[in-house]
Amino acid sequence: MKRREKEPLQLLQVGVGTILSSMAVAGFLLGYVTDSYLDTLPIFLLLFGFLGVLGGIMKAHRLLINVPDNKSEKAEQRSRPKH
């Protein structure tokens, strides 16, 4: 029974890692394409890469901040009157 309680958290952690890495890669790719198109130094690669990493961290934080705590759920279930 304990395994079922932990599965959503583990899947969320995989999703957070995927989101963080994909946003960073997308930022670097967008910067590379922009630098190639404008024939500039890798200024856009660094700028968009940094923004991708920052956006990925913000999105991961937003997802993880809403994860319910098992201890608080169990305490809440104990305090509820049984019908």
Concise synopsis of the structure shown:
With 83 residues, the protein is mainly alpha-helical. Helices cover 84% and strands 0% of the residues.
Show the helix and strand layout.
Layout: H1 2-38, H2 43-65, H3 70-79
Explain how this protein is built.
- With 83 residues, the protein is an all-alpha fold.
- It has a domain at 18-64.
- The protein contains three helices and no strands.
- It has helices at 2-38, 43-65, 70-79.
- Helix 1 runs antiparallel to helix 2.
- The longest helix has 37 residues, at 2-38.
Proportion of residues in helical segments:
over 70%
Question: What characterizes the major β-sheet?
Answer: none
Distance between the termini: 23 Å
Q: Low-confidence stretches at least 5 residues in length (pLDDT < 50)?
A: none
Characterize the overall form.
rod-shaped
Pattern of helices and strands: HHH
Strand content: under 5%
Structural class: mainly alpha
How many helices in DSSP terms?
Answer: 3
Beta strand count: 0
Average pLDDT reading: 83
* Computed CA radius of gyration, to the nearest angstrom: 20 Å
Core attributes:
mainly alpha, 84% helix, 83 residues
